[in-house]
Amino acid sequence: MAQLFYDHLIVIEEITAVLDEHTLTKEERAELLRLIDQTLHHEILDTIFTHLPKERTYPKNTMKRFLPVFT
Amino acid sequence: MMPVQLHTSKLRLALERQARHTGRKLRKNHPHAVSFLEKRGIVPGKLREHAARIATTGALAGAMLLTQPIAQQVRSATSAIAQMTTEQLQQKLTSELVSVLPKEMSLLTPTQEQQIANIVQTLWGVRAVPELDGERLNRSYGFIGAEQHLPRFPGDSVDQHDGFQRSGITPGLGAWGYFAPSKQMLTQDLIEKEKWYVAVQTLYLPDWNTRFRYLRDWYKYRKVLVINPTNGKTVAAVVADAGPANWTGKHYGGSPEVMAYLGLNVGMQKGAVVLFFVDDANNEIPLGPVEYNFKLR
Questions:
Q1: Which residues of B50-66 are buried (b: 16+ CB within 10 A; e: fewer)?
Q2: What residues make up the domain containing A45?
Q3: ipTM of the assembly?
């Protein structure tokens, strides 16, 4: 699985441990984790963008400085 | 102590709702940032898949570096696709889909969906995705069955349609009503929409009733790509009707034109297809048969 730069800050093991207490098929487990991952990406990006200095957030210079880390 | 029974379907629905909610919140709070990412083909909720693609591309590039210049390799691969005939592209699509699709009809996994999206992007130059704007149908691979023509305006009749008149016309309206309020107001664009339409099972979406107004508008004329994996024939169509019912054993419906192009208007008039949304905000992909690579034309 590809690593993202904030993975070491997120403790997802607690969630996977709870899921693993139940009898899930491989596909069910993957699908649930994918949805959790999706929510995490949304929330983390929202938090990052919210805390970027305002004067740099929407003038395009911040886009140029920060967003390309994803590309 | 025995763990509490987990209702996976309920949990899945709740997680889907949460993912959609956070996606909408992100888009609302930071529209410019989301737009920046999407223009570069990055779906915010799929950062990990994107990272995996980059890693794969990097590894591939590294391997190519050892053999021959990258630019030359990329040029030759692109050039090979650009020079292929429609039939060759369809054959290649078929052979690549065979290795991805399940042997029996079943739901696709996220990995299979991503692989198919990559294949379609490479061969047709179309960004086709199972999920768009946080919306997805209950399935992206299923059986399609033949539908009749839809009435396009009050007083429309099958003999006013310019093809496949033997397929007939539905006695009632499509799920979104008439295409135009009168014959005079029927544009060429709307004619094409009726000609290349599909019916999808919006009625079975888990949130159809709770988000009806939004979903009704979102699905109306939503552009989709329909692929017959047995012959590689691919068609761009729009959603213009709802159905079919589950008891029919079919998951989508296709207009007479769609079914004929896909080669499914014979025998039982039913067949397996991949159906993805087309991410085409600028409306660059015309409706009808897809027969060349849109990026390389």
A1: bbbbeeeeeeeeeebee
A2: 26-50
A3: 0.85
